[in-house]
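Subject line: Sequence and fold of a protein, written as structure tokens
Enclosed: The protein record, placed directly beneath this head.
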Amino acid sequence: MKAENKRFFKELVSQASPSGFESPAQKVFEDYLKNIVDEIYGDYTGNRIAVLKSKSKNPLKIMIAGHCDEIGLMATTIEETGQIRANNIGGVDPAVLPGQYVIIHTKTKNIPGVIGRKAIHLLKKEERGQVKKEQLWIDCGFSNKKEAEKVIRVGDPISYAPNYLELAGKNIVSKGCDDKVGVFVVAETMRMLAEKRSSLKSDVYGVSTTMEEIGLRGARTAAAGITPDIGIAIDVTHCTDYPDADKKLSGEISLGKGPVIARGANVSSILFEALVSLAEKNKIPYQIEAEPNATGTDANAIQVTGKGVATALISIPNRYMHTPSEVVNLTDLENAARLLTELILTFTPKTNLII
């Protein structure tokens, strides 16, 4: 991955963007694309929509989407001793929380803190070996409730502290890979398409969506506004290349072996076959994942918008999803953008999408 692309990705994952509070990440997306695309705008639910227009008559409208929101926490109460209680935003596993560095995002500044719990020496026998969110709190160093209330308000969002780290084999670890990797692929695809503008025969809408983790909300409103003919979601999927993974249930998905093309009811068979064919033609490594039901991604919401949308889902393999330390491979991101670019360039106003 080029240095400038890596810088963009690092900045993107380092931003705080719990569902409903995505503005910092959206600014990074917008700043990266504003001098590349024809137009970029926002909507009432916080989405950012970048547009590339073709010169074709009656072009297809293509929406590619990655969600920029991440799981997080929200301040609910302040204890008399100054610690803050919090509830989860999205699917947070309490077991990974103790000892984590976090940031509380207040109206005026960011407040660092750590998630505390009674030391193991002080736990009762029946408390050991389990973690419940009621047992946890956030310690920012305040001496009492009055001191904390000077800066913290109920409802303040809380994110994991930035922790980007490069590992071996072009793998990286960071909070928020779900789904900043998708946003990166959207941005990189838009950049690559802009460089091949003369070959573009469709109008392309690159969307950084919001609130996916709490119900696919941004994708619904973006698709309703765009009314695309084709909608492609870029998200993450579970790796099974680590100890104790259940390959019988989840299939064989590995880091570095290419983007994952979903196959199932949520995916147009026309688009699935086109993606596989193009990957093989262009020697882009890929993997296939069976999705017999609704995927739980933005593709699910986009597909049933309006009169219906031909959808596809491309996923990035991800280890340790919904933890503060998700692991992805940078070449998988690059190959996803390559594949998506090749696909979009094949579309013309005469492309048949009827199954």
The longest helix spans residues 177-195.
